[in-house]
Every structure is written in structure tokens, then in C-alpha cells.
Amino acid sequence: MKSVRRILPYTKQLVLYALYDVLDSENSVYKKENAGQIDASISVFGNTSGFELTISDEPPATVLTVKIKSPREGLSDKGKMRAVEYLADRVEQLLENELKISVFIKQKGDKPA
Prior knowledge:
Layout: E1 3-8, H1 12-25, E2 29-34, E3 37-44, E4 47-58, E5 61-70, H2 77-110
Antiparallel strand pairs: 1-5, 2-3, 3-4, 4-5
Helix pairs in contact: 1-2
């Protein structure tokens, strides 16, 4: 089973929000299996596959693990890795962008009119 693991400097709750945002934007079908684990059917690069996405606290960080559980038939090993990396990248990029935007807004708000 192909997987990728990302150590993120954000709270578990924030990573969960970002993950749900990504799942919703990809029009995926998902269900929460238990605290921090989600099973999802997601189309990545036109190939719909089954994924397991897990978020766990490992202070001082949060760990996001993306595994491809049931890949589309015929999907190559490289294709499987691209899919899990794409999903992990999407979550990480969303968090980084939100952080940059919030800092920018705060800085802009601190300047006198």
C-alpha cells in the first residue's frame, strides 16, 4: 500500500479542517471511521481510488498520513505515489496559504490609515 506521511506544525483540529476542505473541493465521497481517520473515494488526475487519511497528534506537531487503499485498476506504482503526494500536498499548501494570508491581514490591519 503506497502512503505518504507529513509532519505539520499545526493543531490536529486545524489540519482536520484543511483536510475536509480539500475533500469537499475534490467532490470526494468520504466517511469518518474514528477520531482522526477518514476513508474516502477521490478522483485524482482522473483516476478514482480509495484512500485512508489519518491525522494524529504527535506533540509538538500533527501527523497527516495518506494511504491509497484501493487504487483504480491498472494504476501504476508511480501513479499511486503521485496520488497520495497530491492529496498530502493539497492539505499542506492550504494550511501554509491560510497562515500567510492571516499574517498579511494582521500586518495590513496594524498599519495606520
